[in-house]
Design goal:
Length: 273
């Protein structure tokens, strides 16, 4: 049985003393280039960590996090910590947010508002990259709105205000590309790719919720079950078939044609709620 829940706690390593203040340096424009890829972790780097945990390290404003991709290989995700998520996702703002490039490995941005926290951008790119790693010929998934450059109210969303929310389309069978979010018959949902995307997000340990319509949840849960994930574990991940309060994946109306992922507050963003 493969397991996800044990991968969720993040262990924080502080290599050097970190003041907790967000450095107010100007944003390096292309820190995450379009060629950005997670780098494979060496076996010696894994030796100090239990393989079942996601490890975040800090040094100055550099961050790196060890994450296991759905293929089972471990990778370092790297970013420069500049952004600050402030307030609530439905009443908040974003300071020095990072822009998601219009295109990257495994995705295409079609929304109007491409800004997110450094962590949001890194994790989203990782998930799209992880699908691409497993299905190298895959057409890019479509990514919709994240947040406005400085966050705040973003029409027509209730949340998407503090750089922690993103809308992402589902993958379609037969590797057919979508130009925009589209409600597909369940038989046209590519469950393997969509589940790989979700699995990669969950493996970052940074998902607060994923909103997905009940009907799509059922199909995804059945798929994950067929791939060897334990029912007990999936019960904690999926709200379907019940209405469990604590599930990570929840039904919210309006999510038949895309999923909405909300990441937890970055641990060092003190004003994030
Ligand atoms: Zn949304």
């Amino acid at each position: 049985m493969r397991s996800l829940i044990t991968l969720t706690p993040i262990v924080l390593f502080t290599i050097t003393y970190y003041s907790g203040c967000t450095p107010k340096t100007s944003r390096p424009k292309h820190y995450l280039s379009d060629q950005y890829m997670p780098s494979a972790a060496a076996p010696s780097e894994l030796a100090n960590n239990t393989a079942s945990e996601s490890v975040l390290e800090r040094q100055g404003d550099e961050r790196r996090q060890l994450v296991t991709a759905p293929t089972g290989k471990a990778y370092w995700l790297r970013w420069r910590k500049v952004s600050e998520s402030v307030g609530r996702c439905n009443a908040g703002r974003l300071i020095d947010g990072l822009r998601l490039p219009a295109k990257g490995v495994g995705y295409r941005h079609i929304g109007k508002s491409p800004y997110g926290s450094d962590e949001t951008i890194t994790y989203l790119r990782f998930a799209a990259w992880a699908v691409h790693e497993q299905y190298p010929d895959t057409v890019p998934v479509v990514v919709g709105d994240l947040s406005a450059e400085r966050g705040g109210y973003l029409k027509p969303h209730r949340s998407h205000q503090s750089g922690r929310d993103a809308d992402v389309g589902y993958y379609r069978t037969k590797n057919r590309a979508l130009r925009w979010f589209k409600t597909l018959p369940i038989g046209e949902l590519d469950l393997s790719k969509t589940w790989t995307f979700i699995e990669a997000l969950l493996r970052t340990g940074a998902v607060e919720y994923i909103f997905i319509d009940h009907s799509v949840q059922k199909a995804l849960r059945d798929h994950a079950r067929s791939r060897g994930f334990a029912a007990r574990e999936l019960d904690q991940i999926f709200q379907f078939p019940g209405r469990k309060r604590r599930a990570l994946i929840r039904h919210v109306a309006g999510h038949k044609n895309h999923l909405h992922v909300r990441f937890v507050c970055p641990s060092e963003d003190d004003k994030c709620k």
